[in-house]
Design goal:
By secondary structure, the protein is an alpha/beta fold. 49% of the residues lie in helices and 9% in strands. The protein is globular, with a radius of gyration of 28 Å. The two termini are 35 Å apart. This is GT-D fold-like domain-containing protein. It holds the Pfam family GT-D-like.
Amino acid sequence: MMQSSLRKPAVASAAPRVEKPQSPAKTSAKPKPAKPVARAKQGKLPLKKKVRKLALGKGKAHSRRRRVGSKRRTPIVSKPQLEQGDESFRERQRSYEQGYQEGLIEGGERMLEEHLPPDMIIPDITAREAVSAGVESLKKRGIPLLNSATVYDELAAALNERRSYAFIRLGDGELLTLAQEKVLSLEEVRREGDFLPYAGVTIPNLAARDELAECIKVATLIGVPMSRHPHFQPLLFATLRAHGIDYRQLRFTTSTMNYLMEEQGLLLRLFQGRKLLIIGNVALQLREALLEKGMEVVGAVTPVNGYADVPRVVAEAMQYDYDIALVAAGIAAIPITVHLAGMGGKVTFDFGHLADRMAGLAQPERQ
């Protein structure tokens, strides 16, 4: 019965409600990461046995011949050629600097010129200074972002009190999926999101679009991008408005909070003494890495074959007794995270490509 309900688009059946704290947890001092263990001093390697002088002399002569031969093959560059190359490099530098200055004028300086009062001049003002002053006056419109210490405190409190907590993160893949026929046409999404099949979504997928929107409404905490690239923060608010979501009712942190917490030593502190469930295509590798660090991993659900695999993954994960689930499954991580928190009353964490890094694997370009 659970699987069939998950297969329905979120419009027909809203995502499970996840508990949200009534007020942000009190920020505590950032725990200090453990000091790295000093490496043991390595002993000297055993010396190789001496070889006969005859063989050694022959090797040296052969080596000299190779070096002489390779030197002959090295092309000789005359001084005029070097000077000509230097001049070409300097010309490219001048062209770059000229283009940069023109772009700066046509961008920030031109915009500043349009907004300066016509009846006065402001000596020595720069576009950077004007933007800084303008942003200062706009802070009242700002939305607070939870810092790493607060996120840690909230996750730890939810674990201690056995409350549900869904921490999801939004990137360009999720936002482009949400934008289908709401903000962007399907053709625009296909063109700008050629990586989406890798992330688990094939366009069009309006059911995924609608389910993601429902998940955002009920998630406990949402990581959002800080980049001003058109497909990140600008698209975030455009898609929220298009789906009728009041962002003032949501709770935000940065979308890279998972990395920040790991770098500050907060994740391993959070995982200590907890039963971990790992979900995703690198679950087995991450499990081994965490076991080596003394963590308790009770299970690994793998693979996750795209967004369509969400019902099966959720059903399999529900069979485990765990405290916190780490989900690294592309765009599918959002419904998996929200469903497990809402249906199982668990703490769930959209872990992303941090799983690759902690497992010691090469990270894909998109993170």
